[in-house]
Specification:
The structure holds 2 protein chains of 2 kinds.
Chain A: H1 2-12, E1 23-24, H2 35-48, H3 58-77, E2 85-88, H4 91-106, E3 112-116, H5 125-134, E4 137-141, H6 151-158, E5 164-168, H7 180-189, E6 193-197, H8 209-212, E7 216-220, E8 230-234, H9 236-241, E9 252-255, E10 260-262, H10 276-292, H11 294-314, E11 318-321, E12 329-334, H12 339-347, E13 351-352, E14 354-356, H13 361-367, E15 372-376, H14 383-399
Parallel strand pairs in A: 1-13, 3-4, 3-5, 5-6, 6-7
Antiparallel strand pairs in A: 2-8, 7-8, 9-10, 11-12, 12-15, 14-15
Helix pairs in contact in A: 1-11, 2-10, 3-10, 4-5, 11-14
Chain B: H1 6-13, E1 26-32, E2 37-46, E3 49-58, H2 61-74, H3 79-84, H4 87-93, H5 103-128
Antiparallel strand pairs in B: 1-2, 2-3
The chains are: A alpha/beta, B alpha+beta.
The structure holds pyridoxal-5'-phosphate (PLP).
Chain lengths: 402, 129
């Protein structure tokens, strides 16, 4: 256990946020940012700020180089090529891009899209709208009592020959780590394309799109110790075949009043001025995380989650949701307390914990609960944070006489 | 002061006017979808007054306690008076500092009751027309 504390303390000082004496256990919602990210963004604005892909003067080129350099960094990080990296606002926008551009061109009446019960609203609603528009069907693969994807049920649904299978890498509620590579292979065998929501995995384990072999993958930079930008990865061939999503400046090759032709990848999907400083900041976050090494991150976090899980399990009245083997998050309820009450009592003791449905209302229905509380960790989380949280939870128990 | 003052927990654990009425003239229900809080208000009206009132539902301590406190406050008031209750009056009934994020919880019962009463008054007026 000692190693965990040491490791976490080493990283914590990199995060100016912790000048505030808060126990921050909501990294799954958004991570705090290391100083190197904030510095990279400030430096961009103070020294290199210009619009990209436009001016021919030196400064404009410098900004463009930084922006495209960030794209290269992110491509390398997930083992993609830069042409396959599209900057978007967030993961949600990435999924909408695929639903609108790929989906509208490829999903036809009567065809099927397959998702799972553990999806975030972002990976449900865009598909709902698409199937409604097309007269297609949305199927939902079930989870087991233990909170893992029911792979047999998943395989059974693949017999319906879905055109697309969209699922999360790690559940933001259950912490379940889905076997992405195996599920992708199964889906491909059934003739489907695969979209992976990597929001909850990207900062916590090594994600290699070539190895996973998924067709699309999305994540939000703000959950990866970076700023509020998002990334869509798509296989080059697919992105090439897709029509544009948003349109206007930057994404065109030639425009006349009669017609336009599209820019090359990835710019075809980046209409208008992008969040240049955001991309630069995200690249800095990637460098930061690579400096630690994702294997080290994973080892430290798994140990800490195991520690929290064991301690939580010992508290009578605590009900934990999801499997024992998990990444980064633990959702729970305390006796008959509403999750918001748990969160507010903890908040009164300086412990930030998310409560509610976690943008997964259908999953709450499956679990048979209106809401739950959730702790989630990052590289800066210490064993002391967990201990303070546990102490605050004891206080909540006392206040509510559980 | 903590939002979980003794009085809130007392009303949460032992809610006043909790349950259902046999012949309510007003039944009103709503929920906060974001947290799953749910409240139903039932009112027996006599001479345009709140002759009896019950609330039922489930949810957080704040929403349930606040709803319970509201039922005590409005007992015996005229429907017109209930319809005119404002947020500030409602929040004064709950003797704690409610954080902005939890206002919605504290106001759920109030919203449900007020809407139910306003609808009943509208119906009444339509009858007279
Ligand atoms: C699994 C998962 N998918 C998608 C999202 C949506 O991310 P964003 O709001 O940044 O688009 C989240 C974030 O809460 C998430 O946890």
């Amino acid at each position: 256990m000692k190693k965990v504390v040491m490791g976490a303390n080493v990283f914590r000082k990199d995060f100016p946020f912790f000048a505030r004496k808060l126990v921050y256990l909501d990294t799954a919602a958004t991570s705090q940012k290391p100083r190197v990210v904030l510095d990279a963004m400030r430096k961009f604005y103070e020294i290199s700020n210009a619009n990209v892909h436009r001016g021919v003067y030196g400064l404009a080129d410098e900004a463009t180089q930084l922006y495209e350099g960030a794209r290269k960094t992110i491509a390398r990080f997930i083992n993609a090529s830069p042409q396959e990296i599209v900057f978007v606002r967030n993961a949600t926008e990435g999924i909408n891009l695929v639903a609108q551009a790929w989906g509208r061109a490829n999903i036809k009446k009567g065809e099927t899209i397959l998702i799972t019960q553990m999806e975030h609203h972002s990976n449900i609603v865009p598909w709902q709208l698409l199937v409604k528009e097309k007269g297609a069907n949305l199927l939902v693969a079930t989870i087991t009592k233990a909170g893992e994807l029911d792979v047999l049920a998943f395989e059974k649904l693949l017999e319906k020959k879905p055109k697309l299978v969209a699922f999360t890498h790690v559940s933001n509620v259950l912490g379940t780590v889905n076997p992405v590579k195996e599920l992708t292979a199964l889906a491909h065998k059934a003739g489907a394309k695969v979209l992976v929501d990597a929001c909850q995995s990207i900062a916590h384990m090594h994600v290699d799109v070539r190895n996973l072999n998924c067709d699309f993958l999305v994540f939000s930079g703000h959950k990866l110790y970076g700023p509020f930008v998002g990334v869509l990865y798509g296989k080059k061939k697919l992105l090439e075949e897709m029509p544009p999503f948003l349109c206007g400046g930057d994404m065109i090759k030639e425009v006349s009043f009669e017609k336009s032709s599209w820019n090359e990848l990835p710019w075809k999907f980046e209409a208008g001025t992008p969040d240049v400083a955001g991309a630069v900041g995200l690249a800095a976050a990637v460098f930061y995380l690579e400096g630690i090494g994702l294997a080290n991150v994973e080892r430290q976090e798994v140990e800490l989650v195991e520690y929290a899980f064991k301690k939580l399990q010992k508290i009578k009245a605590v009900q934990i949701y999801g499997p024992k083997t998990r990444a980064g998050v633990i959702s729970f309820n305390l006796g008959d307390m509403h999750a918001h009450d748990v969160s507010t009592v903890l908040d009164e003791q300086g412990v930030c914990v998310r409560s509610g449905h976690h943008c997964a209302q259908p999953l709450m229905g499956v679990l048979g609960i209106p809401a739950c509380a959730r702790i989630s960790i990052g590289v800066y989380t210490t064993k002391e944070d967990i201990d303070k949280f546990l102490a605050a939870l004891q206080k909540a128990k006392k206040v509510f006489r559980l | 002061m903590s939002m979980y003052a003794e009085v809130i927990l007392d009303y949460y654990r032992h809610p006043r006017n909790y349950g259902k009425l046999n012949h309510p003239q007003i039944v009103s229900h709503d929920m906060n979808t974001s947290c799953g809080d749910e409240i139903t208000m039932q009112v027996e009206v006599k001479d345009n007054m709140v002759a009896d009132i019950r609330f039922s539902g489930k949810g957080c301590a704040i929403s349930q306690a606040a709803a319970s406190m509201l039922t005590e406050h409005v007992m015996g008031l005229s429907l017109g008076e209930v319809a005119k209750l404002n947020k500030e009056t409602m929040l004064k009934l709950v003797p704690i500092d409610i954080s902005p994020m939890r206002l919605k919880c504290a106001l759920l019962g109030f919203k449900v009751l007020k809407l139910g009463v306003i609808k009943a008054l509208d119906r009444g007026e339509n009858h007279e027309n």
